[in-house]
């Protein structure tokens, strides 16, 4: 647990953090967000004493951070920055081992931990450990940056716009991956971002800052449903109902799809469906359960022909990953003019389908809450 | 399948080598001061030896025209170059030894313009192989040094002692050693002083940006002054100082001598060292430093584990430039009485004895090349593998 009490930080006459108090429960992600210059990064750096406040105090698990030497304190707090800052003269494995080495761990223990982190990050150790940072892509480097911060298994992780410099496509992947890791590790995370969608998606709580002060500190649902003042409602925007959809992962709302394999007797399957009258659409899979495309049972030729009866062409445009959110699903539906989209996993296997009805249900519930 | 092509470097060397056969290979002088008669290769050497040289050059030419990308072809130019290099000195020395004329007891035989050009051309062949063997450390070293080692051996065994330059050397062996060490001490201590001051200036102008302009204005201006002028400029103020405070004279500090030379040489060496220190700090990524601090490194650990490994190679290459430059500039310092190998150069100029000039000039060249190589190896060893280094052009 992190407790920030009445903390103020000034740069000359400019007050960067103005009498801020904040309590972050253990195991939760707290997103600090706000317009640039609002003091969110400064607030983050006060926690591991990269910066020292003029007044106020910060406690970690009930202990005053001023009782520790700053260097020793930082070795027990993970730290990830926007531009990664991997050490260019060290290999990936050496980068990960920096903090354990500072903590004088035994070599075997460091080795073991490094291997474990490669597994956590789902990266091939043999492929990456001897590489140098300049040989990595942006997304890979950022994952190593997170691994390095996790190396000594700290209870607290400070992340300063960690995915800010990554392109949008990779960013979504990294976010999804980070959520997966966090659901296992349950770190107390302070996450600075300027991207509201990111904050809504990742944060258990969001602290919205403005001119060094916290304007509202609440769960994303609360902030979207009950903005405390004009600034907050302007910041979350008129599309907040839409933004709220990022809180709902596809995997929790998808339904079991109606499927048939291309190797099976498709014509018999169609006949059966026609007799029942529903569903109108089903999904055609290949032998490895990978999605080929949707089939409209009312317009199937006899004999069945893959070329004419399967709408393969735009299939990838409507497909979503199981790590996506309902917001992305809705966007695909509106963009492609479909009411149901297929959901695939990392190996392109069809794991579910989701229709506009599910989204309506979610938004209705939200409207009731408000 | 190996692509057959034209190897321009080898070709250039071979053409130059063949052309040099048309210039005087050796010069005969009745005594060390008189001007002499030049002899072409076929006049100077027995026909078999002359033919061998020409034949080797033709081989080099052939290699240049039909180059293939494989190991024998990479090695051939260097091999031919080394052989020719050794043969030039070997043949000249034999010729000098065999030419004994009782009427001319002071007869001197020097390597002529053509001989030197030929030696230079053979070095181009060696360079050509060096380029192609990049990354193959041992072979490359063999190609670079085998000829020079052989010549050094010939020198040590006294085989070359009939050549005029060596005679000049034998006549002044003691003086040569003392001037050589004076040269090394002057150049070395100038670079040491410049390293301390230059590194300081570099760090200082990086930390306080307002000093960046004045500091670089100063070191740049110093660099534009001709070395002779800078040596001259030092004389007046130092002479004045030593007059005012006679105690300085007891330390040898006066208008001429080592003191003004050392100051001028140190000033010269400032620019490369200051500039590279400054650059090496400029290109340090602030995010990397922040990450280091954020991981929990102390100030010293950040310096030792991040800043120094990342900036040292660039700082060292500044010192490399300064060293090579200082070794050359120290030659001129002889003019203000500071000693060094320049003494022979200027004596030789004064007496119009080309071989005495060479006695000063050749060691300076060898020292520069050797220092440069040594620093290159050191920098290569010290550069961390993960950072990209711009390979400096081969020298």
Count the E strands of chain A.
16
The largest inter-chain interface, given as chain pair and residues per side, is: A-B, 29 and 22 residues
Strand order of the largest sheet of chain A: 6-7-8-3-9-10
Share of residues in strands of chain A = 15-25%
Query: Helix segment count of chain A?
Result: 18
Strand proportion of chain B: under 5%
Beta strand count of chain B? 5
Helical content band of chain A:
25-40%
Identify low-pLDDT runs of chain A: none
* N- to C-terminal distance of chain A: 30 Å
Quick summary:
The complex is a heterodimer of chains A (about 375) and B (about 400). Chain A is α/β, with parallel strands linked by helices and about 375 residues long.
Account of the 3D structure:
The complex is a heterodimer of chains A (370) and B (395). Chain A is globular. Chain A starts with a strand and ends with a helix. The mean pLDDT of chain A is 88. Chain A is α/β, with parallel strands linked by helices and 370 residues long. Chain A has helices spanning 40-47, 70-74, 92-96, 98-102, 107-120, 125-128, 138-150, 168-185, 196-202, 220-225, 230-236, 240-244, 250-253, 266-276, 306-309, 315-318, 326-336, 356-369, and strands at 2-11, 14-24, 29-33, 55-60, 63-64, 77-81, 156-160, 188-193, 205-210, 213-218, 259-261, 281-285, 291-296, 320-321, 340-344, 350-355. Chain B is built from 16 helices and five strands. In chain B, the strands form two sheets. Chain B has a three-stranded antiparallel sheet with strand order 3-2-5. The two termini of chain B are 32 Å apart. Residues 391-395 of chain B have low confidence and may be disordered. Chain A binds chain B through residues 48, 50, 71-76, 79, 81-91, 98-99, 102, 132-134, 145, 148, 158, and chain B through 285, 287-298, 301, 306, 309-310, 384-388.
Secondary structure layout:
The complex is a heterodimer of chains A (370) and B (395).
Chain A lengths: L1 E10 L2 E11 L4 E5 L6 H8 L7 E6 L2 E2 L5 H5 L2 E5 L10 H5 L1 H5 L4 H14 L4 H4 L9 H13 L5 E5 L7 H18 L2 E6 L2 H7 L2 E6 L2 E6 L1 H6 L4 H7 L3 H5 L5 H4 L5 E3 L4 H11 L4 E5 L5 E6 L9 H4 L5 H4 L1 E2 L4 H11 L3 E5 L5 E6 H14 L1
Parallel strand pairs in A: 3-8, 3-9, 6-7, 7-8, 11-12, 14-15
Antiparallel strand pairs in A: 1-2, 1-4, 4-5, 9-10, 12-13, 15-16
Chain B lengths: L3 E2 L2 H13 L5 E4 L7 E3 L1 H4 L2 H19 L1 E2 L2 H28 L9 E4 L1 H20 L4 H20 L7 H8 L1 H35 L1 H16 L2 H18 L2 H4 L7 H25 L3 H10 L3 H35 L8 H10 L2 H29 L13
Helix pairs in contact in B: 1-3, 1-5, 3-4, 4-5, 4-6, 5-6, 7-16, 8-9, 8-12, 8-14, 9-12, 10-12, 12-14, 13-14, 14-16, 15-16
